[in-house]
């Protein structure tokens, strides 16, 4: 692969997706229809603060949608991947494939 | 080269995580306690009200009780559905909520199952077919319906185990293995046996799949790729 092509592929890589924890969050969200904050904590083993930071970044990029509701008096937050997020996740792996020798 | 190895490793870890999440979500079995409890309660109510009606056929209150129970049974299917939707996930509140993309079981399949199931039990109860064959047909229709629903509703491990147990019970009954309460009238030898088999198989399934679910959760916790809490 020429240097130009490699450079182009590098530029195409989405920096929001290109982070292991966010990749894992997106992978979980592509496997499920909807998950809540607790489930992501259980499966990923992150601290609450760190997970919230990553989720915020994905939400700001509109890759996930956040649903906030109250269960009795307890707030409950669920997440779904958006079409844009799904597309970007697929595109990310396609770009990574292009980087293969 | 090192980058490629790292990239492949990350991809494999993520694939593995996705599969584990899917298997974990499909094997949450404790919600089954709700329909099983309602089934067991309904069976007791029905048998009790029929026994009462047979014991004091002239008393008006036995009739009222019997018809109240008869009305409650179809309503309980709706109540059960609502309870499962509302509280089915509460058993796993500590693990968090995960909902898979699932299709609903078709109404036609449900109607076919109800007709086959009720048809077999009614034919057995009125003596058109022997009770053994009525039990076999009812258990087979229940087993096939459970298998079909599991595929549609993304509850494969749960419904595969339950349907396998039901189909094994059907084969064993067809082969002529003695059933409990045999020779005690169709109320017990057919109806009570059927409910005992279905609820019993459900309880075994619940336990087996719950153990499997905890195993998958442990695996997720061991393999979570980017954990900070290990």
- The SSE string of chain A, one letter per element, is HHEHHEEH
Task: Kindly provide the radius of gyration of chain B, computed on alpha-carbon positions and rounded to a whole number of angstroms.
Answer: 22 Å
Q: Helix proportion of residues of chain B, in percent?
A: over 70%
- Arrangement of strands in the largest sheet of chain A: 1-3-2
Number of helices of chain B: 7
By DSSP, the count of extended strands of chain B is 1
CATH topology of chain A: Arc Repressor Mutant, subunit A
What is the structural class of chain A? alpha+beta
Q: Largest interface, and how many residues on either side?
A: A-B, 32 and 32 residues
Low-confidence stretches of chain A: none
Count of all domains of chain B: 2
> Globular, elongated, flat, extended or rod-shaped: what is the shape of chain A?
elongated
CATH class of chain A reads: Mainly Alpha
Average pLDDT of chain A works out at 85
Mean pLDDT of chain B: 87
Give the number of domains of chain A: 1
Q: What's the end-to-end separation of chain B, in Å?
A: 29 Å
N-to-C order of helices and strands of chain B: HHHEHHHH
| Biggest sheet overview of chain A | 3 strands, antiparallel
Could you describe the 3D structure shown?
The complex is a heterodimer of chains A (101) and B (230). With 101 residues, chain A is of the alpha+beta class. Chain A has one domain (3-98): Arc Repressor Mutant, subunit A. Helices cover 58% and strands 19% of the residues of chain A. Chain A is built from five helices and three strands, in the order H-H-E-H-H-E-E-H. Chain A has a three-stranded antiparallel beta sheet. In chain A, helix 1 runs antiparallel to helix 5 (83-98). The longest helix of chain A is centred in the C-terminal third of the chain and has 16 residues, at 83-98. Chain A is elongated and about 60 Å long. Chain B is an all-alpha fold. Chain B is built from seven helices and one strand. Chain B has helices at residues 2-26, 33-55, 60-87, 107-125, 131-152, 156-174, 186-223, and one strand at 98-99. The longest helix of chain B has 38 residues, at 186-223. Chain B is elongated, with a radius of gyration of 22 Å. Chain B starts with a helix and ends in a 7-residue tail after the last helix. The chains are: A alpha+beta (101), B mainly alpha (230). Strand 1 of chain A pairs antiparallel with strand 1 (98-99) of chain B.
């Amino acid at each position: 692969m020429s240097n130009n092509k490699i450079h182009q592929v590098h530029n195409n890589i989405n920096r929001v997706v290109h982070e292991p924890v966010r990749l894992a969050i997106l992978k979980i969200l592509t496997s499920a229809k909807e998950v809540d904050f607790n489930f992501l904590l259980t499966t990923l083993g992150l601290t609450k603060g760190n997970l919230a930071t990553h989720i915020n970044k994905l939400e700001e990029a509109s890759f996930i949608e956040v649903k906030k509701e109250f269960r009795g008096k307890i707030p409950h937050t669920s997440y779904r991947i958006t079409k844009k997020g799904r597309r970007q996740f697929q595109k990310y792996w396609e770009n990574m494939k292009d980087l293969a020798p | 080269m090192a980058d490629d190895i790292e990239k492949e490793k990350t991809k494999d870890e993520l694939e593995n995580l996705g599969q584990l999440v899917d298997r974990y979500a499909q094997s949450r079995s404790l919600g089954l306690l709700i329909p099983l409890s309602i089934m067991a309660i309904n069976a007791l109510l029905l048998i009790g009200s029929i026994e009462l009606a047979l014991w004091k056929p002239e008393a008006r209150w036995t009739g009222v009780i019997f018809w109240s129970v008869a009305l409650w049974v179809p309503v309980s299917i709706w109540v059960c559905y609502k309870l499962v939707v509302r509280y089915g996930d509460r058993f796993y509140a500590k693990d968090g909520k995960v909902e898979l993309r699932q299709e609903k079981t078709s109404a036609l399949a449900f109607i076919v199952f109800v007709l086959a199931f009720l048809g077999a039990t009614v034919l057995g109860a009125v003596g058109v077919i022997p009770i053994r064959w009525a039990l076999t047909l009812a258990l087979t229709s229940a087993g096939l319906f459970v298998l079909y629903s599991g595929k549609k509703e993304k509850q494969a491990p749960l419904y595969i185990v339950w349907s396998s147990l039901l189909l094994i019970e059907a084969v064993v009954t067809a082969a002529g293995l003695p059933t409990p309460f045999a020779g005690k009238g169709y109320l017990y030898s057919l109806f009570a046996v059927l409910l005992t088999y279905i609820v019993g198989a459900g309880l075994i399934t619940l336990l087996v799949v719950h153990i499997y679910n905890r195993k998958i959760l442990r695996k997720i916790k061991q393999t979570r790729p980017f954990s900070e809490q290990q």
